[in-house]
């Protein structure tokens, strides 16, 4: 059994070794207050709480985590705080769930704390499935102990001695790192029985997903751990009342747990000084798409989209015109360029029809077709709808068919109305978050980019030049008649004599773009319109 | 396609699974980990092993089937050693990819989406893989075969047969 003195000894022993290694690596700054931050402009404008150890400590070595004050928050809670105090602190901190919905963590924990039960559970939701989002994966792979410590603090406060981490099977490295971390923590006595001699027991077990996006929904996740089909439950009870095996259960996201130890290390006031009044702290975003510096970005809540996309992300690639930024994955919405000064917090994003979501942030430029993007997300939802609620199962399919029609140039006037009506039904008639938000990509693109829908339907044109069926390839008079395009054409629809202007037969063209690729860059005679 | 599950050949694997079940029999919610373990050991979920799970854990086959079909990572048929992906994108399609696919299906005597009984080949049809100027194209594992004619197929398949 480890004692607090032993924990301090490990820290003192390991800290100089860690600092020496980091100085040799030369990619970090060690500040006077002992905090360690990564070097470079990209990180300068960020405030890292959930990611604070990522890229700094060795995730396979628990001693390095201890060297950066790891497990001291747990020790302090177990030795000096009552369960009730921890819940009060969590409520005072104002931390809100980072999985997307933003429910206050302290209030959630309090609900489970107040129910009397012989068994309670703490679950970490690591079933991160939004396309383009990898915040949780990065935390699990680079700083797994912060999640374990957060879970143990939560377990102590609500009275749970058992925790589960539900990880998607597509993250094999995260699974390996977590397994190793749990083993090391058990070996040192920081998980298991009688932690730090306080009599508190807490064990964590890993459960793997098997490729079902809907299992990221709390009740579906619980069903899956119970060994059933991952279909959301009818929400008669909160899971904090009756969750896993009908016992009080708290489910929090990876990033939420990673925030917990830091709050207890540095205090509630410090945490509240970052971010906004209603959304304190930071949020991690996976900044991807057509942006210059893609990567993980952690910024205080209330930072504007402009600061994230342009100041940190460096704007769009190749100087293309910025069109939109999409937040919240398949549940979120597309925010147009004129709202780029919106601040990023739960309320502001909600107000303009998008959501915070788990943190996916996809940048789109002038070449992205917004109808096609809506179609892409719908395609995803149709695949992942569990089938329990008819409006979601059938409605999303009908919406996808309608969008398919529009992007292939067969759209009709009444299609927009049909999409709007289906959106409303699916949103109102679904049990879980997947269905309730499935129409958001369509609703927001219809709201902010209606002209693009109309161009597809009325003029049979795709303004972004992205929808294959609506573009034409055309050879301009820059053509020198080299014949490269004709040779590349898979359907032999380009004709022309040597050294003379070539012509594409539009009726036979399949719009594969091979001719445009084959045309020598110096000539660039083939254009798309 | 029926796969004959060879109990003799799979003796050690069966023991491994039986051991896992015996060790974890009382774990609540054991079905998912048991299916994941089966998939890991055998590469798919053999019917015979699902029956073992059903008996050992007293879970009806209907329920196991329900769970196994819900999650996309579980498969009831084994994947072949060599995975043939036939591009059915527009360019390949107009260049006769359908004929190429049919030729492969005839040669291997299975339909797309299936695996040969000797577990040597699986056939998948895929969306455009972006090699339109080389159409029609197939992929075997990571190797690209461009500008195919039906006559080429036999020789290409033989190459993979010889390697084994």
Q: How does this structure look, described?
A:
The complex is a heterodimer of chains A (529) and B (164). Chain A is built from 22 helices and 16 strands. Chain A is α/β, with parallel strands linked by helices. Chain A folds into 4 domains: 269 residues, NADH-ubiquinone oxidoreductase 51kDa subunit (Rossmann fold, 3-Layer(aba) Sandwich); 84 residues, Roll (Ubiquitin-like (UB roll)), CATH 3.10.20; 90 residues, NADH-ubiquinone oxidoreductase 51kDa subunit, iron-sulphur binding domain (de novo design (two linked rop proteins), Up-down Bundle), CATH 1.20.1440; 58 residues, Alpha-Beta Plaits, CATH 3.30.70.20. A 5-stranded mixed beta sheet of chain A has the order 5-6-4-3-7. In chain A, strands 9-8-12-10-11 form a 5-stranded mixed beta sheet. Chain A has a two-stranded antiparallel ribbon with strand order 1-2. In chain A, a hairpin with a 7-residue loop joins strand 14 and strand 15. The radius of gyration of chain A is 26 Å and the shape is globular. The termini of chain A are far apart. Chain B folds into 2 domains: 60 residues; 82 residues, Glutaredoxin. Chain B contains 7 helices and 4 strands. In chain B, helix 2 packs antiparallel against helix 3. Chain B has 164 residues and is of the alpha+beta class. The mean pLDDT of chain B is 89. Chain B has a 4-stranded mixed beta sheet, with helices on one face. Classes of the chains: A alpha/beta (529), B alpha+beta (164). At the A-B interface, helix 22 of A face helix 2, helix 4 and helix 5 of B.
